[in-house]
Amino acid sequence: xxGLAGLTGFALRRTVGALVTLLAISVIVYVVFYVTPGNVAQxxxxxxxxxxxxxxxxxxxxxxxxxxxxxxxxxxxxxxxxDYSTGTSVQHCSAPCLGLSYQSDQQVTALILAKLPVxxxxxxxxxxxxxxxxxxxxxxxxxxxxxxxxRLLTGVTLVGVATPVFVIGxxxxxxxxxxxxxxxxxxxxxxxxDPEQWAWNLLLPWLSLALIEAAAFARLTRAAxxxxxxxxxxxxxxxxxxxxxxxxxxxxxxxxxxPVIALNxxxxxxxxxxxxxxxxxxxxxxxxxxxxxxxNVVDLxxxxxxxxxxxxxxxxxxxxxxxxxAVADRRVVLA
Amino acid sequence: xxxxxxxxxxVEFGSLxxxxxxxxxxxxxxxxxxxxxxxxxxxxxxxxxxxLHRGTGARxxxxxxxxxxxxxxxxxxxxxxxxxxxxAMVFQDPxxxxxxxxxxxxxxxxVYRAHTRAPRRAARARAVEVLDRVGIPDAVRRxxxxxxxxSGGMRQRALIAMALACGPDLLIADEPTTALxxxxxxxxxxxxxxxxxxxxxxxxxxxxxxxxxxxxxxxxLVMRHGRAVEQGPVGTVLGSPAQPYTRELxxxxxxxxxxRAVAQASAEELVTGEESVTGEAEVVLEAAGLRxxxxxxxxxxxxxxxxxxxxxxxxxxxxxxxxxxxxTTLGRMLVGLLEPTAGEVRYDGHARVGxxxxxxMVFQDPxxxxxxxxxxxxxxxxxxxxxxxxxEERIRGRVRELxxxxxxxxxxxxxxxxxxSGGxxQRVGIARALAADPRLIVCDxxxxxxxxxxxxxxxxxLGELRRELGLALVFVAHDLAVVRQVSDRxxxxxxxxxxxxxxxxxxxxxxxxxYTKQLLAAVPALDPRIAAQRRAARRELxxx
Lengths: 335, 544
What we know:
CATH architecture of the largest domain in chain A: Orthogonal Bundle
CATH superfamily of the largest domain in chain A: MetI-like
Order of helices and strands of chain A: HHHHEEHHHHHHHHH
Strand content of chain A: under 5%
Number of domains of chain A: 2
Strand order of the largest sheet of chain A: 1-2
Number of helices of chain B: 20
Helix content of chain B: 25-40%
Oligomer: heterodimer
Largest sheet of chain B: 6 strands, mixed
Number of helices of chain A: 13
Number of strands of chain B: 20
Shape of chain A: globular
Number of strands of chain A: 2
Largest interface: A-B, 21 and 28 residues
């Protein structure tokens, strides 16, 4: 395999695939919202609006247009930008335009740019922690298999898998911030404003998200390592007097790399939009929280925008995972 | 002091006694083969020599002394220092025995460093040195390859290089050539022979193949059910065996240098009135200009290239070749499981597409070619049902008949594949092929997964069926000796082409194609003296 040419082709194929996927997602969201019952104009306008006002809102938001016209409008905005009238003035929304929020008339792209750093800060930090904790625990329990250590760890990870994040998060917050007063109650500070405060404030959210996810990684790592340990090449190194530390740390762990990459891609992508509970609990204004709010008030442009962003990260995470596979295991051919 | 001294060795896994009171010794620089069929405990003995059963729950009794180390009493650290340094083991399957993620040179260097504490650089240099020693060309560059980038023979050389890294006194080789083609096997056995001459290390060879033992060792220990049956110099044990089991074992080994046994009657017995008029047996199947490609464009690969052959009624055509020669692809095209890219298969004179009940197949692996979740009776009934038979009574009756026909018990209808031995499962596969009343059965490596005694029984069954039912057989195999013993005619394949075809005895006794000559020269001989002559002959062929 010629490395660079292979990688370019791979990136090209993946980009096309991602675009098709994202378009399909947007169609699905449009259709789902179209068939969902409920008067969008009424909800957007508020409970006290008169029928005439509601009618006006519906006009303004093009809610009476057929589905395909609305979708084509959306596509046009995405490719060429669009002008929106907000009753009194006209707002121009330039090229990658995802529309305006029904609720706030804010541009969805601006909304995303405001929320995304919060979500990414949370998920990236948590990912580092869950990988260290999860893989570490997994290695330890595979190494000490059948002993007390392993049984204890298995118990702990089982509790981790079974506990909801708001329980762990709440307990952490009460103990660390309330009882011990080691940290202030978390409040989001942007990385660009104050890196140190950013980290301190995110520590608890990271920890509570990571503890839940780490449990799954620990179980996966342990299972993959035990499987590798049963393979012939492990027998070879034992029969050649290579120490147990090297057998476990070098040869058995290597077999766990691919499944861990796969699970990590999945969980990372999912957590960008799915860490709603953590975001809500710690008052982090992230994508997940915004998405839930937008769904509640049927704010279609925001929902579509958020879903596309989440979809983008899922696709990206998986593409990165495929490249990492090929780096980790030379037998893998990128396709 | 002997290099290896084993006294009253027993190994038990739960209630199973795999090795039962075995004693033997191996002097420094000598070579001993443990020969036996599967389940005889020979590999267990090899593992026990390195204390590999420690911590696995197996109970090991008796005394084991290897290179001055008391394996039973040694501490974990003493054992670690024995393994790889004083006694090194070469395993059967060279692909799965190496770590797929690391470069081969690094893996060898790691072993070297585990015993010498040499600096990284020196260990890497040592790895290249031993790889070069075992005949890996361009060892510096190839030491950076991963195992999957090596061929089977090169991987086995790499494993041998790993064994050599620390200059051990004893080499334990557990079926070192079983996964390899016959020409590659000969190269590996020659390499082991040369290395032993040069380094003076002792060799303990574990093998099911009597021929491999005859090629490589001075002494043989025949094992059965975990016990020693017979032990002595290789010439004596193989030349004039004292024990009935040894004689049975040797009798079952197919000979490549003897014409086929009388028991395997030939096609001439089947002469019917019709044939005496035409002078030629009727043609069952004809293949013309068969070609098959896999992959597209740059990755296109021609597995079978312009193969034409004819199969007559009641005749056995042997197709022999090494792995990758295209013999399985050809077999599948004859049955209709694969469409040829070009050329055609004519059945009864008509071009044909797809599978026909009259042409059936028996597969290599009797374990994976039967559905483990269905009773064998149901598997055998499949072709009957496929043909539209609905009457349950008749189906059951016919299946019982078939089970008895292949030497199984009619009451086995409701049993599942895992309840049968390998040989019995292959009989089930044959019964399933017979269910459709075929005129031709294509057998793809039907006996290569079986022990020699079982192999002989299955081969005998196929011969019997052919005689009684007037079946034509296509016998695809890599084992030259087996093919000689079953075939009327033989086609030798290489790189998708038939390089030589003719009556079996002619091809074997007077091969014309250089490749056929090379193949035949690579087959291990049962007589150690002939083995030595062949080794010399191979050296000459290699020079040419």
